[in-house]
């Protein structure tokens, strides 16, 4: 009778091998975290990320329940699936955290961002900047004889595309709010 040999580190197809399998692909996730609105909470959340070397691509926070004194933190981060799972688990263990939702895996969601762009230029570049702003439905919120400040809202990809097109036309300065996101449909 031949003995069955299993190499160390190999995966067997057994009921005892219940560990989830993760890929090595870096993914982008949007997390919505409901916390108590009190001093130091945001610092603790950010500390969790910086202390473990996790990156935050976007961070927004605002009070969403004035009577209950709760805030919603929207975090966009990237990492391998096992890192994202660690982030969610560690966020859930912070005492003032009430809910952690991974909008990326929970279903369709809506993401929007606000961007302000200062574009300086004259002549044809100024005309082209106005034409592109019209196409992107950006609003002029300030103008001088040599510059515009455009306001644009939309998905982060739209904001990125607008910035890329404005660079050769005289983009001087950019301010972005970061992503605000909600899941679509009923909870």
From TrEMBL:
CDD domains: ACT_AHAS. Pathway: Amino-acid biosynthesis; L-valine biosynthesis; L-valine from pyruvate: step 1/4; Amino-acid biosynthesis; L-isoleucine biosynthesis; L-isoleucine from 2-oxobutanoate: step 1/4. It catalyses: 2 pyruvate + H(+) = (2S)-2-acetolactate + CO2. One of its GO terms (cellular component) is cytosol. GO terms for biological process: isoleucine biosynthetic process; L-valine biosynthetic process. It is an enzyme of class 2 (transferase). Residues 30-105 form the ACT domain. Its EC number is 2.2.1.6. Gene3D superfamilies: 3.30.70.260, ACT-like. Chain A, domain 2. Pfam families: ACT_AHAS_ss (PF22629), ALS_ss_C (PF10369). It comes from the Bacteria. NCBIfam families: acolac_sm (TIGR00119), PRK11895.1 (NF008864). Belongs to the acetolactate synthase small subunit family. Dimer of large and small chains. Catalyzes the conversion of 2 pyruvate molecules into acetolactate in the first common step of the biosynthetic pathway of the branched-amino acids such as leucine, isoleucine, and valine. This is Acetolactate synthase small subunit. It comes from Cognatishimia activa. The gene is ilvH.
């Amino acid at each position: 009778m031949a003995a069955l040999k299993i190499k160390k580190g190999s995966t067997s197809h057994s009921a005892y091998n219940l560990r989830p399998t993760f890929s090595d692909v870096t993914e982008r996730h949007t997390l919505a975290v409901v916390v108590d609105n009190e001093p130091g909470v945001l610092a603790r959340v950010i500390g969790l990320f910086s202390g473990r070397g996790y990156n935050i691509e976007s961070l927004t926070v605002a009070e969403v329940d004035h009577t209950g004194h709760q805030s919603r933190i929207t975090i966009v981060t990237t990492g391998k699936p096992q890192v994202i799972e660690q982030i969610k688990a560690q966020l859930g263990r912070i005492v003032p955290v009430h809910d952690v939702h991974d909008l990326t895996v929970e279903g369709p969601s809506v993401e929007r961002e606000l961007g302000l762009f200062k574009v300086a230029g004259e002549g044809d570049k100024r005309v082209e900047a106005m034409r592109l702003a019209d196409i992107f439905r950006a609003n002029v919120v300030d103008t001088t004889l040599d510059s515009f400040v455009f306001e644009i809202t939309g998905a982060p990809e739209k904001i990125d595309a607008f910035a890329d097109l404005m660079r050769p036309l005289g983009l001087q300065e950019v301010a972005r709010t970061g992503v605000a996101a909600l899941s679509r449909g009923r909870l």
